[in-house]
Amino acid sequence: MAKITVDKKKCIGCGACVSVCPSAFEMKDGKSSPIKSKVANITCEREAAESCPVNAIKIEE
User: How far is CA 20 from the centre of its chain?
Assistant: First the structure.
């Protein structure tokens, strides 16, 4: 299982992660949030993390 977190203090709400991986991220109160905090298989989450301009997304495997 991989754990996905978004640092709300770093997130600028640009929506890049939602654009890249809408199945894993959503916008809540103007900030990104993972739909599930733990996933069995990484799909587009890594690409979304790499697209984040402020490196707010962390994936722990």
Answer: 10
